[in-house]
Amino acid sequence: MEKIIFSPDGGEAVEFYCLEQTVIGAKTYLLVTDEEDGDGEALILRDDSDIKDEEAVYVIVDDDLELDAVAGVFRKLLSEDGIDLDI
């Protein structure tokens, strides 16, 4: 599983493990967790980078409608690998 390090502006670096990635409506979404194995906190991040940005800019998806739609896609993708997603 790929480890990703996020460096929020003015904050301490945070490490996540990327479980899955998908593109919906020209936006890239990542499903990340704080634990490599077992139950961990899961988040869905959306890439809000501009083409001119040198580094990717990810934000936590917190809009309920968008979160439900993207979580449904991730549930389907992960169920094919026998993984249950509870977001």
Summarize the structure.
The protein is an alpha+beta fold.
Number of β-strand runs: 5
* Proportion of beta-strand residues: 35-45%
Distance between the termini: 19 Å
Structural class: alpha+beta
Helix count from the secondary structure assignment: 1
Count of discrete domains: 1
Rounded Rg: 13 Å
From the spread of the alpha carbons, the general shape counts as globular
Proportion of residues in helical segments: 10-25%
Spatial arrangement of strands, main beta sheet: 1-2-3-4-5
pLDDT under 50 segments (min length 5)?
none
Question: Could you explain the architecture of this structure?
Answer:
InterPro entries: UPF0473. This is DUF1292 domain-containing protein. The chain has 87 residues and is α+β, with helices and mostly antiparallel strands. Helices cover 18% and strands 37% of the residues. It has one helix and five strands. It has a five-stranded antiparallel beta sheet with strand order 1-2-3-4-5, with helices on one face.
Helix-strand blueprint:
Elements lengths: L1 E5 L7 E11 L2 E7 L8 E6 L10 E3 L3 H16 L8
Antiparallel strand pairs: 1-2, 2-3, 3-4, 4-5
